[in-house]
Protein backbone atom coordinates (compact mmCIF):
# COMPACT_ATOMS: atom_id res chain seq x y z
CA UNK A 1 0.00 0.00 0.00
CA UNK A 2 1.22 3.47 -0.87
CA UNK A 3 0.06 6.88 0.33
CA UNK A 4 0.81 10.24 -1.21
CA UNK A 5 -0.12 13.47 0.53
CA UNK A 6 -1.27 16.59 -1.28
CA UNK A 7 -1.86 19.99 0.30
CA UNK A 8 -5.27 21.44 -0.60
CA UNK A 9 -7.43 24.35 0.57
CA UNK A 10 -9.56 21.86 2.56
CA UNK A 11 -6.54 20.31 4.29
CA UNK A 12 -3.90 17.71 3.63
CA UNK A 13 -5.35 14.82 1.60
CA UNK A 14 -3.89 11.34 1.67
CA UNK A 15 -4.23 9.45 -1.61
CA UNK A 16 -4.04 5.69 -1.04
CA UNK A 17 -3.07 3.25 -3.77
CA UNK A 18 -2.83 -0.54 -3.84
CA UNK A 19 -0.80 -2.04 -6.67
CA UNK A 20 -0.87 1.35 -8.40
CA UNK A 21 -4.69 1.64 -8.25
CA UNK A 22 -6.49 4.42 -6.41
CA UNK A 23 -8.42 2.99 -3.45
CA UNK A 24 -8.85 5.96 -1.14
CA UNK A 25 -8.81 9.70 -0.64
CA UNK A 26 -9.09 11.05 2.90
CA UNK A 27 -7.96 13.87 5.10
CA UNK A 28 -4.35 13.15 6.02
CA UNK A 29 -3.33 12.39 9.54
CA UNK A 30 -4.99 8.99 9.63
CA UNK A 31 -2.12 6.56 9.53
CA UNK A 32 1.41 6.54 8.24
CA UNK A 33 2.28 8.07 4.89
CA UNK A 34 4.28 5.64 2.79
CA UNK A 35 6.28 7.11 -0.08
CA UNK A 36 6.12 6.13 -3.71
CA UNK A 37 5.46 7.60 -7.13
CA UNK A 38 2.29 5.72 -8.12
CA UNK A 39 0.05 8.49 -6.81
CA UNK A 40 1.64 11.20 -8.95
CA UNK A 41 -1.17 11.22 -11.55
CA UNK A 42 -3.90 11.36 -8.91
CA UNK A 43 -2.19 14.05 -6.84
CA UNK A 44 -1.47 16.09 -9.99
CA UNK A 45 -5.14 15.96 -10.95
CA UNK A 46 -6.21 16.91 -7.42
CA UNK A 47 -3.86 19.92 -7.54
CA UNK A 48 -5.36 20.87 -10.92
CA UNK A 49 -8.91 20.49 -9.53
CA UNK A 50 -8.16 22.69 -6.53
CA UNK A 51 -6.36 25.18 -8.80
CA UNK A 52 -9.45 25.54 -10.98
CA UNK A 53 -7.83 23.82 -13.98
CA UNK A 54 -9.66 20.47 -13.84
CA UNK A 55 -13.36 19.67 -13.74
CA UNK A 56 -13.25 15.91 -14.30
CA UNK A 57 -10.82 13.23 -13.19
CA UNK A 58 -9.27 11.09 -15.93
CA UNK A 59 -7.60 8.18 -14.22
CA UNK A 60 -6.34 4.78 -15.20
CA UNK A 61 -8.01 2.63 -14.17
CA UNK A 62 -11.15 4.68 -14.74
CA UNK A 63 -13.35 5.99 -11.95
CA UNK A 64 -15.89 3.29 -12.89
CA UNK A 65 -13.23 0.61 -12.43
CA UNK A 66 -12.09 2.17 -9.14
CA UNK A 67 -15.67 1.94 -7.87
CA UNK A 68 -16.03 -1.63 -9.13
CA UNK A 69 -12.95 -2.71 -7.15
CA UNK A 70 -13.80 -0.66 -4.04
CA UNK A 71 -14.90 -2.21 -0.78
CA UNK A 72 -18.63 -1.69 -0.45
CA UNK A 73 -22.00 -3.28 -1.03
CA UNK A 74 -23.52 -3.43 -4.49
CA UNK A 75 -26.00 -0.75 -3.41
CA UNK A 76 -23.17 1.55 -2.26
CA UNK A 77 -21.33 1.01 -5.52
CA UNK A 78 -24.48 1.82 -7.50
CA UNK A 79 -24.81 5.07 -5.50
CA UNK A 80 -21.13 5.93 -6.10
CA UNK A 81 -21.49 5.28 -9.86
CA UNK A 82 -24.42 7.72 -9.98
CA UNK A 83 -22.54 10.30 -7.94
CA UNK A 84 -19.65 10.05 -10.41
CA UNK A 85 -22.07 11.23 -13.15
CA UNK A 86 -22.93 14.52 -11.41
CA UNK A 87 -21.29 17.28 -13.45
CA UNK A 88 -18.91 19.83 -12.00
CA UNK A 89 -20.81 22.83 -10.66
CA UNK A 90 -24.12 20.98 -10.25
CA UNK A 91 -25.87 19.38 -7.29
CA UNK A 92 -28.64 16.86 -6.77
CA UNK A 93 -30.55 15.93 -3.65
CA UNK A 94 -30.18 12.72 -1.68
CA UNK A 95 -33.82 12.04 -2.62
CA UNK A 96 -33.15 12.52 -6.34
CA UNK A 97 -30.09 10.28 -6.09
CA UNK A 98 -32.20 7.62 -4.37
CA UNK A 99 -34.58 7.73 -7.32
CA UNK A 100 -31.71 7.40 -9.79
CA UNK A 101 -30.54 4.19 -8.10
CA UNK A 102 -34.08 2.75 -8.12
CA UNK A 103 -34.76 3.23 -4.39
CA UNK A 104 -36.80 6.46 -4.24
CA UNK A 105 -37.68 6.12 -0.55
CA UNK A 106 -34.22 5.09 0.61
CA UNK A 107 -32.60 8.52 0.68
CA UNK A 108 -31.17 7.85 4.15
CA UNK A 109 -29.44 4.73 2.84
CA UNK A 110 -28.13 6.87 -0.02
CA UNK A 111 -26.79 9.40 2.50
CA UNK A 112 -25.05 6.57 4.36
CA UNK A 113 -23.52 5.33 1.10
CA UNK A 114 -22.26 8.86 0.42
CA UNK A 115 -20.57 8.81 3.81
CA UNK A 116 -18.78 5.57 2.90
CA UNK A 117 -17.46 6.86 -0.44
CA UNK A 118 -13.80 5.76 -0.43
CA UNK A 119 -12.66 8.40 -2.93
CA UNK A 120 -14.37 11.71 -2.14
CA UNK A 121 -13.71 14.58 -4.54
CA UNK A 122 -12.86 12.06 -7.29
CA UNK A 123 -16.37 10.63 -6.78
CA UNK A 124 -17.93 13.99 -5.89
CA UNK A 125 -20.28 13.20 -3.01
CA UNK A 126 -20.00 16.86 -1.99
CA UNK A 127 -22.42 17.55 -4.87
CA UNK A 128 -25.24 15.69 -3.09
CA UNK A 129 -27.33 17.96 -0.85
CA UNK A 130 -30.59 17.94 1.07
CA UNK A 131 -33.82 18.52 -0.87
CA UNK A 132 -34.73 21.14 1.76
CA UNK A 133 -31.75 23.26 0.75
CA UNK A 134 -29.45 22.02 3.51
CA UNK A 135 -25.96 20.78 2.82
CA UNK A 136 -26.32 17.50 4.72
CA UNK A 137 -23.12 15.94 6.00
CA UNK A 138 -19.73 15.34 4.47
CA UNK A 139 -17.26 12.66 5.45
CA UNK A 140 -14.45 14.55 3.72
CA UNK A 141 -13.91 16.95 6.59
CA UNK A 142 -17.40 18.11 7.49
CA UNK A 143 -19.85 20.67 6.21
CA UNK A 144 -17.21 23.43 6.15
CA UNK A 145 -15.23 21.51 3.52
CA UNK A 146 -18.39 20.60 1.60
CA UNK A 147 -19.40 24.27 1.46
CA UNK A 148 -15.88 25.22 0.28
CA UNK A 149 -15.89 22.57 -2.47
CA UNK A 150 -19.30 23.68 -3.73
CA UNK A 151 -18.25 27.36 -3.70
CA UNK A 152 -15.08 26.36 -5.57
CA UNK A 153 -17.37 24.92 -8.26
CA UNK A 154 -19.52 28.08 -8.32
CA UNK A 155 -22.36 26.90 -6.08
CA UNK A 156 -23.14 29.21 -3.15
CA UNK A 157 -24.63 27.71 -0.01
CA UNK A 158 -23.75 30.72 2.17
CA UNK A 159 -21.23 30.97 4.94
Helix and strand sequence: EEEHHHEHHEH
Termini separation: 38 Å
Per CATH, the superfamily of one domain is Winged helix-like DNA-binding domain superfamily/Winged helix DNA-binding domain
Shape: globular
Overall mean pLDDT stands at 89
SS class = alpha+beta
CATH architectural grouping of one domain: Orthogonal Bundle
> How many helix segments?
6
Low-confidence stretches: 30-35
Radius of gyration: 15 Å
Strand runs, count? 5
Share of helix, binned:
25-40%
**Looking at CATH, which topology of one domain would you report?**
Arc Repressor Mutant, subunit A
Main sheet characteristics: 3 strands, antiparallel
User: Which CATH top level class of one domain fits?
Assistant: Mainly Alpha
Strand arrangement in the largest pleated sheet: 1-2-3
Instruction: Report the sheet-strand fraction.
Output: 15-25%
How would you describe this structure to a colleague?
By secondary structure, the chain is α+β, with helices and mostly antiparallel strands. It has a domain at 72-152: Orthogonal Bundle (Arc Repressor Mutant, subunit A), CATH 1.10.10. It is 35% helix and 16% strand. The chain has six helices and five strands, in the order βββαααβααβα. The strands form two sheets. It has a three-stranded antiparallel sheet with strand order 1-2-3, with helices on one face. A two-stranded parallel ribbon has the order 4-5. Mean pLDDT is 89; it is low at 30-35.
Amino acid sequence: MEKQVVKTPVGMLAVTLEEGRLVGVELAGRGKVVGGKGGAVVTKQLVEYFGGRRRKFELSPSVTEIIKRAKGTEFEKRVWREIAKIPYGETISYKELAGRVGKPKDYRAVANACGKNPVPIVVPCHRVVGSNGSLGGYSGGGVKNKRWLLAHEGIDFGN
